Amino acid sequence: MNKPFRKFKENTKLFFGGFFHLIFPNLCLSCSCELSRSEEHLCHFCFAQLTFTYFETAHEPSPLDKVFWGRVPIQKTYALLYFEQDKPSQKILHALKYQNKANLGIFMGHIIGKKLKENNFLCDIQALIPVPLHPKKEFLRGYNQSEKIAAGISKILAIPIVQKSIKKIKHTESQTKKDRFQRWENVAAIFGGTSRAIPFQHVAIVDDVVTTGSTIEALSRELLANNPELKISIISLAIAK
């Protein structure tokens, strides 16, 4: 490609990119301010308001570890953020689930992957298993948000995503307004495994937010029923505070 043509192509790209941005400005999903070229999804101000857990540097059991104590054998757990009402963390999860922001999941997955890699945390996991969505819900949403988060992590850690090892076979109601017992009752027997064994020793279940842990507990029990020697860890975008 000769130099004049390359210059013309670059200028055309800049022109149409600027024109598109003028009609569809890139806005912060939390405060709706226009983002600069160095910002993605959140402006610097809103990003600074995120409450990170720093579980990757903790030397004591984390609150997420304690969620599963006495319930199901989990190796390690990690959550990037504390979920807080009316804060950017809530806006992130809402946009990821209900505003067709699939790329936001990949973006947050990249952040998770970098923090894990920089701190050598969960360095022995061999694969990622996103929490499955029921096919009906995934069709309506257009994607599985946990798969998008896992895709971002997978890119940074260079480990595969296992997607066909287990399926969600029961369409459940929203967990939002249910207490701990109701949440467990709602998710009991909702997952079904395939006949194929998982060819890894240590995997991490990936979820968007953990509250009572009922969904992950049910998924872990199903995985262990078919793979009793499997080691399971948890990676979540957020944990309810």
- Please tally the β strands and state the result: 6
| First-to-last CA distance | 55 Å
Give the biggest beta sheet.
4 strands, parallel
- Low-confidence stretches are 13-22
Order of strands across the widest beta sheet?
1-6-5-2
The count of domains is: 2
Count up the helices. Answer: 9
| Outline type | globular
Task: Provide mean pLDDT, rounded.
Answer: 85
Strand content: 5-15%
Rg from Cα: 20 Å
Percent of residues in helices comes to 40-55%
Looking at the overall shape, the CATH architecture of the largest domain is 3-Layer(aba) Sandwich
Fold-level CATH name of the largest domain:
Rossmann fold
Q: What structural class do helix, strand and pairing data support?
A: alpha/beta
The CATH class of the largest domain: Alpha Beta
Walk me through what this model shows:
By secondary structure, the protein is α/β, with parallel strands linked by helices. The protein folds into 2 domains: about 1-50, no CATH class; about 50-240, 3-Layer(aba) Sandwich (Rossmann fold). Helix content is about 40%, strand content about 15%. It is built from 9 helices and 6 strands; from the N terminus they run H-H-H-E-H-H-E-H-H-E-H-E-E-H-E. The protein has a 4-stranded parallel beta sheet with strand order 1-6-5-2, sandwiched between helices. Strands 3-4 form a two-stranded antiparallel ribbon. Strand 5 (about 200-210), helix 9 and strand 6 (about 230-240) form a beta-alpha-beta unit. The radius of gyration is 20 Å and the shape is globular. About 30% of the residues are buried.
Topology of this protein?
Layout lengths: L2 H21 L20 H5 L14 H5 L9 E7 L4 H11 L3 H17 L8 E4 L4 H7 L3 H13 L8 E3 L11 H8 L3 E3 L8 E9 L3 H13 L4 E10 L1
Parallel strand pairs: 1-6, 2-5, 5-6
Antiparallel strand pairs: 3-4
